[in-house]
Protein backbone atom coordinates (compact mmCIF):
# COMPACT_ATOMS: atom_id res chain seq x y z
CA UNK A 1 0.00 0.00 0.00
CA UNK A 2 1.27 3.49 -0.73
CA UNK A 3 1.59 6.29 1.77
CA UNK A 4 0.60 9.17 -0.45
CA UNK A 5 -0.70 12.18 1.36
CA UNK A 6 1.73 12.28 4.29
CA UNK A 7 3.27 15.77 4.28
CA UNK A 8 6.88 15.79 3.19
CA UNK A 9 7.05 12.08 2.35
CA UNK A 10 7.07 10.64 -1.14
CA UNK A 11 4.73 7.71 -1.77
CA UNK A 12 6.18 4.55 -0.13
CA UNK A 13 5.06 1.02 0.54
CA UNK A 14 4.30 0.02 4.13
CA UNK A 15 5.58 -3.47 4.90
CA UNK A 16 3.82 -3.41 8.27
CA UNK A 17 0.46 -4.07 6.69
CA UNK A 18 -2.73 -2.21 7.41
CA UNK A 19 -4.01 0.91 5.74
CA UNK A 20 -1.68 3.85 5.02
CA UNK A 21 -3.25 5.78 7.91
CA UNK A 22 -3.24 2.91 10.41
CA UNK A 23 -1.24 3.34 13.60
CA UNK A 24 0.78 0.21 12.87
CA UNK A 25 1.88 1.49 9.47
CA UNK A 26 2.42 5.12 10.54
CA UNK A 27 4.46 4.13 13.62
CA UNK A 28 6.87 2.13 11.48
CA UNK A 29 7.33 5.03 9.08
CA UNK A 30 7.89 7.58 11.83
CA UNK A 31 10.34 5.18 13.48
CA UNK A 32 12.19 5.01 10.15
CA UNK A 33 11.72 1.27 9.70
CA UNK A 34 10.07 1.44 6.29
CA UNK A 35 11.20 4.87 5.16
CA UNK A 36 14.36 6.38 6.62
CA UNK A 37 13.65 10.07 7.00
CA UNK A 38 16.65 12.04 5.83
CA UNK A 39 17.00 15.72 6.54
CA UNK A 40 20.05 17.91 6.26
CA UNK A 41 22.23 17.56 9.35
CA UNK A 42 21.08 20.09 11.93
CA UNK A 43 21.52 20.47 15.62
CA UNK A 44 20.57 22.64 18.54
CA UNK A 45 23.44 25.01 19.25
CA UNK A 46 21.81 27.15 21.93
CA UNK A 47 18.75 27.47 24.15
CA UNK A 48 17.72 30.59 26.04
CA UNK A 49 14.79 31.53 28.25
CA UNK A 50 13.76 34.76 29.93
CA UNK A 51 10.92 35.72 32.27
CA UNK A 52 9.74 39.32 32.77
CA UNK A 53 7.50 40.87 35.43
CA UNK A 54 5.03 42.91 33.38
CA UNK A 55 4.25 45.47 36.15
CA UNK A 56 7.97 46.11 36.79
CA UNK A 57 8.62 46.35 33.06
CA UNK A 58 5.65 48.73 32.58
CA UNK A 59 7.09 51.14 35.17
CA UNK A 60 10.37 51.42 33.26
CA UNK A 61 9.58 50.95 29.56
CA UNK A 62 8.76 54.56 28.71
CA UNK A 63 11.06 56.32 31.17
CA UNK A 64 13.79 58.33 29.46
CA UNK A 65 17.29 57.04 30.07
CA UNK A 66 16.33 53.41 30.70
CA UNK A 67 17.71 50.62 28.57
CA UNK A 68 14.24 50.18 27.09
CA UNK A 69 14.02 53.61 25.45
CA UNK A 70 16.25 52.56 22.54
CA UNK A 71 15.58 48.83 22.64
CA UNK A 72 12.49 48.44 20.50
CA UNK A 73 12.24 49.06 16.77
CA UNK A 74 9.54 51.34 15.37
CA UNK A 75 7.78 48.21 14.07
CA UNK A 76 7.74 46.60 17.51
CA UNK A 77 6.36 49.77 19.10
CA UNK A 78 3.72 50.10 16.34
CA UNK A 79 2.66 46.46 16.82
CA UNK A 80 2.41 47.01 20.58
CA UNK A 81 0.19 50.06 20.16
CA UNK A 82 -2.13 48.12 17.82
CA UNK A 83 -2.85 45.39 20.38
CA UNK A 84 -6.00 45.31 22.46
CA UNK A 85 -4.00 44.38 25.57
CA UNK A 86 -1.52 46.81 27.08
CA UNK A 87 1.51 47.83 25.07
CA UNK A 88 3.72 47.04 28.08
CA UNK A 89 2.46 43.44 28.14
CA UNK A 90 3.26 43.06 24.44
CA UNK A 91 6.69 44.70 24.72
CA UNK A 92 7.58 42.70 27.84
CA UNK A 93 7.26 39.49 25.81
CA UNK A 94 9.45 41.00 23.07
CA UNK A 95 12.05 42.00 25.66
CA UNK A 96 12.00 38.43 26.99
CA UNK A 97 12.50 37.12 23.44
CA UNK A 98 15.47 39.42 22.83
CA UNK A 99 17.04 38.32 26.12
CA UNK A 100 16.35 34.65 25.32
CA UNK A 101 18.08 34.99 21.92
CA UNK A 102 21.12 36.60 23.57
CA UNK A 103 21.24 33.87 26.22
CA UNK A 104 20.93 31.12 23.60
CA UNK A 105 23.69 32.68 21.53
CA UNK A 106 25.89 33.27 24.57
CA UNK A 107 25.35 29.70 25.76
CA UNK A 108 26.44 28.41 22.37
CA UNK A 109 29.81 30.13 22.94
CA UNK A 110 30.61 28.47 26.29
CA UNK A 111 34.16 29.27 27.44
CA UNK A 112 34.62 31.75 24.58
CA UNK A 113 34.92 35.50 24.88
CA UNK A 114 31.70 37.39 24.05
CA UNK A 115 31.95 39.23 20.75
CA UNK A 116 28.75 41.27 20.73
CA UNK A 117 28.32 44.70 22.29
CA UNK A 118 26.12 45.06 25.37
CA UNK A 119 23.48 47.19 23.60
CA UNK A 120 22.56 44.62 20.97
CA UNK A 121 18.82 44.42 21.76
CA UNK A 122 17.69 46.77 18.98
CA UNK A 123 19.33 44.51 16.39
CA UNK A 124 17.02 41.69 17.50
CA UNK A 125 13.52 42.42 16.25
CA UNK A 126 10.50 40.27 17.00
CA UNK A 127 8.05 40.34 14.11
CA UNK A 128 4.81 38.43 13.66
CA UNK A 129 3.02 37.01 10.67
CA UNK A 130 -0.63 37.69 9.87
CA UNK A 131 -1.69 35.04 12.41
CA UNK A 132 0.44 36.49 15.22
CA UNK A 133 3.19 33.85 15.15
CA UNK A 134 6.50 35.36 16.23
CA UNK A 135 9.78 35.24 14.34
CA UNK A 136 13.11 36.91 15.02
CA UNK A 137 14.67 39.24 12.45
CA UNK A 138 18.33 40.14 13.01
CA UNK A 139 20.35 43.13 11.80
CA UNK A 140 23.82 44.46 12.54
CA UNK A 141 26.61 42.45 14.14
CA UNK A 142 24.41 39.73 15.57
CA UNK A 143 23.05 38.97 12.08
CA UNK A 144 26.63 38.31 10.92
CA UNK A 145 27.36 36.03 13.87
CA UNK A 146 24.13 34.06 13.47
CA UNK A 147 23.97 33.93 9.67
CA UNK A 148 24.02 30.11 9.63
CA UNK A 149 21.49 29.67 12.41
CA UNK A 150 17.71 29.33 12.41
CA UNK A 151 16.08 30.93 15.44
CA UNK A 152 12.92 29.40 16.85
CA UNK A 153 11.09 31.57 19.37
CA UNK A 154 8.00 31.14 21.52
CA UNK A 155 6.37 33.89 23.61
CA UNK A 156 3.79 33.65 26.37
CA UNK A 157 1.90 35.83 28.87
CA UNK A 158 0.28 34.58 32.04
CA UNK A 159 -1.01 36.94 34.69
CA UNK A 160 1.72 39.47 35.50
CA UNK A 161 4.44 37.49 33.72
CA UNK A 162 5.75 37.39 30.17
CA UNK A 163 8.24 34.78 29.03
CA UNK A 164 10.08 33.65 25.92
CA UNK A 165 12.17 30.70 24.81
CA UNK A 166 14.66 30.85 21.95
CA UNK A 167 16.29 27.85 20.30
CA UNK A 168 19.19 28.27 17.90
CA UNK A 169 19.47 25.54 15.30
CA UNK A 170 22.43 25.14 12.97
CA UNK A 171 21.48 24.97 9.31
3D architecture notes:
- It catalyses: apo-[ACP] + CoA = holo-[ACP] + adenosine 3',5'-bisphosphate + H(+).
- Mean pLDDT is 79; it is low at 1-6, 9-14 and 20-37.
- A three-stranded antiparallel β-sheet has the order 1-5-4.
- The protein contains five helices and five strands; from the N terminus they run αβαααββαββ.
- It has helices spanning 23-30, 54-60, 74-82, 87-107, 140-145, and strands spanning 43-53, 124-128, 134-138, 149-158, 161-170.
- The chain is of the alpha+beta class.
- Helices cover 30% and strands 24% of the residues.
- It has a single domain (43-170), classed as 4'-phosphopantetheinyl transferase domain (Ribosomal Protein L22, Chain A, Alpha-Beta Complex).
Summarize the helices and strands and which ones pair or pack.
Elements: H1 23-30, E1 43-53, H2 54-60, H3 74-82, H4 87-107, E2 124-128, E3 134-138, H5 140-145, E4 149-158, E5 161-170
Antiparallel strand pairs: 1-5, 2-3, 4-5
Helix pairs in contact: 3-4
